[in-house]
Amino acid sequence: MHPSWRDLVIDYLSSDEQARARFLCSCSVHGALLALSSAGGQSGQRQLPLLRSDADWDALTDRVYDLAPELEEAEMIGLLDALGVAIDKLPMTPGGSEADALAGAVLSRLAVIWEAARAPIGLAPLEAWLTLAKQLSPRPAPPAIAVTWAELLPVSAPDLSDRTSLERFADWLTLAELLLGYDPILLEELGFPGRSQQHTDSFLNALEQDVRCLPTRDIDQAIRALARMSTLIRSYAKRADSVRHRLRLENAEYIYAPTGPDPTTVGGPTIPRQTGRLDVQRVLKDL
After folding, report:
1. Cis status of the peptide bond prior to 193, with omega within 30 of 0
2. What is the spatial distance between Cα 131 and Cα 123, in angstroms, rounded to a whole number?
């Protein structure tokens, strides 16, 4: 689809109140991303092309409310990221207050959905939720994470020969880091690190004794865990940083390969991250 034709369609929707209403009331998440998009058009100046009135914002809020339970993880992350960009683009304007209100409604809706599911929350969508929530004032209370915390809380030191065990341990530390950045009181109430500090200590001791004990495929998870330890438990910072440096030196060829993962990202390489990327064909189907 030639970009100029796409722009014509968007301009038509933007200029027709009834067409906008029909679109916003029935669009997919990709249509919502279009409505929240910025830097569009030939000059890159088009912002929020389908949100020109209070009624438009209300229609999008209602639609996103209905879509929320059906969103795939990547779609959810894209929507939350797009809302964050919209808030950044519209500070201290009527559109900014509307974006704040929509963001608050979406965050509340997702928190209710997650609590009702009584299942662990993925770290990537949780990070996106907390990142967006930080942009609001006052900050909303974090979603219920008791199930997620209980699922990841280690009962023993991770088995360095078992990737699943090591990944779960790194996920637990990643969750703790997310909470530290958003609600340190909640992290304290959860008792971090508590008795689990002995497992953290055992993990660190094992790597200090022999950084080569890890299979190559698991180095990224170990580096992720060590990076979180440096932030979360200051008494371990120097030791964790030293071991992480040794791991990088011993495995530089693997870690810095062009196709290799970035072991410092939240959730490690197993969690995708997409930020508001539009699927044009999906948008056109919404028409």
Report:
1. yes
2. 12
Q: Domain span at residue 204? A: 153-270
Number of domains in the chain: 2
Q: At what angle do helices 54-67 and 94-117 cross, to 10 degrees?
A: 10
Q: How far apart are the first and last CA of the chain?
A: 15
Scanning the structure block, which residue is given the tokens 């009624």?
55
* The pLDDT value given to residue 273: 43
Classify 48 in phi/psi space as left (phi over 0), alpha (psi -120 to 50) or beta. Answer: left
E strand or H helix at 213, and its extent?
none
Residues 141 and 26 in one domain: yes
Token pair, residue 283, equals: 């948008």
Answer whether the bond into residue 215 is a cis peptide, omega within 30°: no
| pTM of the full structure | 0.85
List the structure tokens of 247: 């791991």
Both 241 and 180 in a single domain? Answer: yes
For the four alpha carbons of 102, 106, 112 and 115, in that order, the dihedral sign comes to: negative
Q: Tally Cβ neighbours within 10 Å of residue 193.
A: 20
Show the tokens assigned to 124: 């990537």
DSSP reduced 3-state for 257 = coil
Q: Which residues of the chain have pLDDT under 50?
A: 1, 268-275
Give the pLDDT of residue 150. Answer: 96
Q: Which amino acid does the sequence have at 44?
A: G
The pLDDT assigned to 63 comes to 98
Helices and strands (DSSP H and E) totals, the chain: 15, 0
Residue 282 confidence (pLDDT) = 65
46 beta partners: 40
pLDDT, tens digit (0-9, with 9 covering 90-100), for 49-107? 999 999 999 999 999 999 999 999 999 999 999 999 999 987 656 667 899 999 999 99
Residue 20 near residue 13 (C-beta atoms within 8 A) = yes
The Cα–Cα gap between 140 and 130 comes to: 9
